[in-house]
Each structure stands twice: as structure tokens, then as C-alpha cells.
Backbone:
């Protein structure tokens, strides 16, 4: 039976790991928060509510007006600034985190969150608010690249799928938080509180990151391997065995190398004929960083880049943002709730299902989760199209909730998880950037053209729901792509095993 001291150590390790995960995932939470922060208070912010507009007219010299008059086009441009900032953050975060470390990159995102949110909350015109949205977008886009990578490198190997799913859980939590705040604060000048909460979260994240260590995997490749080992041991606890993780970090091939690494934990660094120096290990195992464009040109990484881009396009082209961004207008009259109530209900279903399905990727595999998710969303898209065409309200409601639930089983969390498992450490940063870059491009396409295409199809063929037949077809194509091209990564030691090839010697 373990001693009281050992039980305390285990408890401390668990608390410390939870702390690391909590602080790091505040970044993805901010992504969800800022993504939907303008949804509920849109009419208040843009002076569409008559009482607010009249109040502003009576206080023309107010430094912080209760609302900011803007047209639909101006509001659309304001909203899209977050996507543009997110795209910039996504494509630059990978190289920065690879060259300078995950920790520094996460600290930079907290600065962007604080500055962006403060500008939004204190904005007196559209330009200042747009700049704030853009800065917050940079931090959010970068976080969705860096945080899944960091979590995969500090989480215990057998639970990486579970911990990896927390990225999507916290994104959904951010959406739910801002929708709930919007439900209560979308009046008068209170909408500024909604936007200001982002700055508060950014401050908490920045302070917490002062107590978070660098990724052991990054330290092993770019710094002293002994520092990486000590950091890993600190995360796991001094009484925990890290032998298998060391083997995974360095790809150790023999007992001599393993002995050297393990002995360094106890401070024994005396070279022996059977022990290599840390510098020797580093020089043998390190591979030069692979850049954003180089990873596409190198045949070794091309299959992985095709896979992550395809998965990200599948995530968006199966139609999730047609529901998450346009549910208020799409479901008007379908459910016996207000538009804000419908949005909160969908957010709750998304969050609960994501949490419930978190262990699924480690149980049945990443690829199986993707195929289950895509097939379910395709089925729900078909049912939703039929129910909208035939005006069956109950079936419409069930289809929408099922649609969101199936998204949470695979297409939500798994793509972010797999992006760091399909390539070696030297190319993870660049691959994550391509992954998120593809996500933002696909998100923009759906967000920009779904309303136009939906209206055109409904006018052309009559009735409603035609666009969801299109999403069902895209889901079928996505199913074929994942089944044919994307490999399973669960239980695989390294990218060579994932792709079924021999190790690269250079």
C-alpha cells in the first residue's frame, strides 16, 4: 500500500498537470469566446434597438457611446477581422513555437488577448473595434496551433487523446460562456462587459503561464536533453517512471543510450564507455526545423499535409458553422424558444457531447472517430434537409441537435489532435500552421457563402433546406477521403510507424 507521502506526491502531480492544462487551454477558450462574442449583442452594438439609438442621439458627446452605428456590411467586415487575425496567428504560430518554444508563444497570445479585448471593450468607433477584433484573432489563431501541440507533449502518453480533446471542449466552453453573457448583458452599455471579459481571461492566462514549464519534447530537440528530462520528471513527479517516455522522446535504440538518459535524472553525468554524452545524443537525434513552405515541398511530409488539410476542409464543409453561426435565423420558429435560447441550447449540447466523447479517440481510434462523426453528420444533414422541406419541426430540432452531437464525436477534437501525430517533432509546428490555415480558409468560405447559396437554392427550387443536401454530399466525399488517405495514429510510436515506412536516417 502506498505511503502517505507517495499518495501526496501522486495527488500533487495530478494537481500540477491539471494546472498546466487549465492555464494552457484558456487560449482555445478565448477562441470560442471571441468567435461568438458579437452574436447575441449584435442589435445593441449596431444601434438597431430603437431605445439605444435614441439614447445615443441624446448623448452625442459621450466618449463611450452605448452603441456604434454601422451598416450590415460594416458589421460583416468587423466580424471577419477576427477570422483574418486568426489566419495570421495560425500560420505564424507554428514557426515561432518551433524556433522559440511553446511557452513563449503562449505568453505572446495572452498579450494579444488583453490588448485586443481592451480595445473592443473601450472602442468608440468601428475602426478601433475592428483593430481589437483583429488582435484577439491573432491570439486565438495562434492558440489553436500551440495549445494542442503543448498538451500532446506534456500529457501522459496513454491519455493524450483524452487531454487532446480538451482543446475542443474549451472552445465550446468559450462559446457557451459568451452566449450566456450575451443573453443577460445585451442591453444598454452592458455589452462592453462581454467584450471586456476577454481581457480578464487574458490576464489570468498570462499570470498563470509564469508557473508553467516549457514542453519537454521541445527542450529535448532544441535545448539540453538533461533539462528536458528534469522537466518531464517534474511534471510526472519524482517517484514516477519516465523511462518509456524518454524512449519516445529520443527514439532510443539501445540500453547504453537509455542508461545515460535515465542516470542523468539522478545527477550521474559521468561518461563511461557505455554512456554517450547529452550533447552527442542531441546531435544524433536532432533534426533541423522544417519551415512553413519547406514542409510542403518535402516528399516525406506531403502525405501528412494533404491529410491535415483534407480533414480540416471536411470539418467545415460538413456544415457545422452553418448551424453555429446561422442557427438563430435558420431555426426561427422551429423550436419553442427565443433565438438566444436556441443558441445556448445548441452550445450546451455541443459542450456536453464533446466532454462525454473525450475518451473515444483513445478507445476506438482517431480515424474511427472521424468516420463515425462524418457519417453521422451526413445523415443528420439529410434528415434536416427533409424536415425543413416538409416543415416537420420536431424532426428539424432532433436533426440539428444530432448534427452538433456527431460533430463533437470526431470532427471537432480529432483534427487538431492528429496534426501533431502525423509528422516528426521537427515539422509539427509548420504542420499545425497548415492545419489551422486550412481551417480558417474553409471557415471563411462557409461563413461567407452559405447564406448566399442557401437563399439562391431555396429561391431556385422552392422551399427550404436544399443547402443541407449539399452538405450531405460533401460529407460522403469526406468519408471517402478519410477512409482512403488518412492513417490511424492511435497506438503508433512515431510518424514512421503511422505511415508504414522505415525510419529516415538524415
Residues:
Amino acid at each position: 500500500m502506498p505511503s502517505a507521502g507517495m499518495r501526496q506526491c501522486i495527488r500533487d502531480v495530478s494537481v500540477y498537470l491539471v494546472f498546466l492544462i487549465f492555464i494552457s487551454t484558456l487560449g482555445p477558450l478565448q477562441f470560442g469566446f471571441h468567435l461568438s462574442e458579437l452574436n447575441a449583442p449584435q442589435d445593441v452594438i449596431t444601434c438597431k434597438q430603437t431605445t439605444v439609438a435614441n439614447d445615443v442621439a441624446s448623448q452625442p458627446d459621450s466618449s463611450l457611446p452605448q452603441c456604434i452605428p454601422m451598416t450590415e456590411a460594416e458589421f460583416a467586415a468587423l466580424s471577419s477581422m477576427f477570422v483574418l487575425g486568426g489566419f495570421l496567428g495560425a500560420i505564424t504560430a507554428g514557426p515561432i513555437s518551433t524556433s522559440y518554444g511553446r511557452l513563449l508563444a503562449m505568453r505572446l497570445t495572452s498579450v494579444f488577448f488583453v490588448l485586443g479585448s481592451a480595445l473592443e471593450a473601450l472602442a468608440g468607433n468601428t475602426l478601433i473595434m475592428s483593430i481589437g477584433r483583429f488582435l484577439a484573432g491573432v491570439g486565438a489563431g495562434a492558440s489553436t496551433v500551440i495549445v494542442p501541440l503543448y498538451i500532446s507533449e506534456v500529457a501522459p502518453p496513454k491519455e493524450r487523446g483524452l487531454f487532446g480533446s480538451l482543446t475542443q471542449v474549451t472552445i465550446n466552453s468559450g462559446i457557451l460562456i459568451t452566449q450566456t453573457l450575451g443573453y443577460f448583458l445585451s442591453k444598454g452599455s452592458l455589452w462592453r462587459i462581454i467584450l471586456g471579459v476577454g481581457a480578464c481571461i487574458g490576464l489570468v492566462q498570462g499570470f498563470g503561464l509564469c508557473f508553467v514549464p516549457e514542453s519537454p519534447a521541445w527542450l529535448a530537440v532544441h535545448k539540453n536533453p538533461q533539462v528536458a528530462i528534469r522537466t518531464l520528471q517534474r511534471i510526472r513527479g519524482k517517484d514516477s517512471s519516465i523511462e518509456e517516455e524518454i524512449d519516445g522522446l529520443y527514439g532510443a535504440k539501445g540500453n547504453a543510450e537509455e542508461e545515460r538518459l535515465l542516470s542523468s535524472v539522478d545527477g550521474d553525468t559521468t561518461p563511461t564507455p557505455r554512456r554517450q554524452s547529452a550533447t552527442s545524443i542531441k546531435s544524433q537525434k536532432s533534426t533541423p526545423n522544417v519551415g512553413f513552405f519547406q514542409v510542403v515541398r518535402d516528399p516525406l511530409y506531403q502525405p501528412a499535409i494533404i491529410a491535415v488539410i483534407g480533414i480540416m476542409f471536411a470539418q467545415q464543409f460538413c456544415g457545422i458553422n452553418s448551424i453555429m453561426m446561422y442557427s438563430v435565423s435558420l431555426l426561427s420558429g422551429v423550436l419553442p424558444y427565443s433565438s438566444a435560447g436556441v443558441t445556448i441550447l445548441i452550445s450546451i449540447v455541443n459542450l456536453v457531447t464533446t466532454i462525454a466523447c473525450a475518451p473515444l479517440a483513445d478507445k476506438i481510434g482517431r480515424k474511427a472517430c472521424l468516420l463515425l462523426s462524418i457519417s453521422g453528420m451526413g445523415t443528420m444533414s439529410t434528415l434536416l434537409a427533409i424536415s425543413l422541406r416538409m416543415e416537420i419541426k420536431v424532426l428539424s430540432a432532433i436533426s440539428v441537435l444530432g448534427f452538433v452531437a456527431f460533430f463533437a464525436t470526431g470532427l471537432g477534437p480529432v483534427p487538431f489532435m492528429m496534426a501533431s501525430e502525423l509528422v516528426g517533432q521537427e515539422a509539427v509546428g509548420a504542420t499545425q500552421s497548415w492545419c489551422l490555415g486550412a481551417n480558417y480558409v474553409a471557415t471563411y468560405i462557409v461563413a461567407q457563402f452559405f447564406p448566399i447559396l442557401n437563399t439562391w437554392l431555396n429561391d431556385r427550387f422552392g422551399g427550404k433546406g436544399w443547402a443541407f443536401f449539399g452538405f450531405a454530399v460533401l460529407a460522403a466525399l469526406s468519408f471517402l477521403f478519410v477512409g482512403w488517405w488518412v492513417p490511424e495514429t492511435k497506438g503508433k510510436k512515431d510518424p514512421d510507424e503511422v505511415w508504414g515506412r522505415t525510419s529516415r536516417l538524415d
User: Anything to note?
Assistant: The radius of gyration is 24 Å.
